């Protein structure tokens, strides 16, 4: 109906020579715009939805990244804590083992000192007891020791290097540590005694000890009965030392 009215108005206007009103043209143009406006109105929600979806996706990605980063940080912290715990446990274990070894060494050293003191005490007791000897045994021993006394020690004695090296029996290390050396003193008096080839020989801890050197002339006449002595290995050979004269070593030979 509007189109008929507009057309009639336009015809009348032409006949009368009156220009057609402009609103008639605009009315025709307005008939074309509603569809485009409707399309534009319909496109807005879709665009908003797309933007909203994009924002949600971004938020989701950011949230996932934050969660992943948080998990990584937690894992690192947990690994660091576990590593620190293992290190602490290892340190504690090493400290405990070290303390145990120190305690064992102390106990071992204490036991060695006690054993050494016991042996020294026993040796002193043996020396102080002075077991009875027959007159004949006493005469033989005194004669052997007296004949083996040096007239001039500086020129009479020779060490094992001068003798061409030691070639006698060698005491095993464990036996040596237990019964020989400077810390293990004893007295010859009362020990089994022999004279072999004119040289005195006595038995100590299962070994026969033979003097191959004369003893210094300034030692006491009965040092072998009264003085503490010890056997040590030095300069590739065995030597007998008198505690009363610790700077002089007599070359000896060991045998079973």
Ranges where pLDDT stays below 50 over 5 or more residues in a row are 2-8, 12-16, 26-30
Overall, the morphology is rod-shaped
Radius of gyration, CA atoms, in whole angstroms: 59 Å
Structural category: alpha+beta
**Biggest sheet record:** 6 strands, antiparallel
- Look at the structure and give the mean pLDDT: 80
Could you characterize what this model shows?
There is one protein chain. The chain has helices spanning 2-16, 22-129, 135-147, 153-156, 173-179, 223-226; strands spanning 193-196, 199-204, 207-211, 229-233, 238-242, 245-255. The protein has six helices and six strands; from the N terminus they run H-H-H-H-H-E-E-E-H-E-E-E. The protein is α+β, with helices and mostly antiparallel strands and 256 residues long. The longest helix is centred in the first third of the chain and has 108 residues, at 22-129. It is 59% helix and 14% strand. Mean pLDDT is 80; it is low at 2-8, 12-16 and 26-30. The protein has a six-stranded antiparallel sheet. A hairpin with a 2-residue loop joins strand 1 and strand 2 (199-204). The chain has a domain at 128-255.
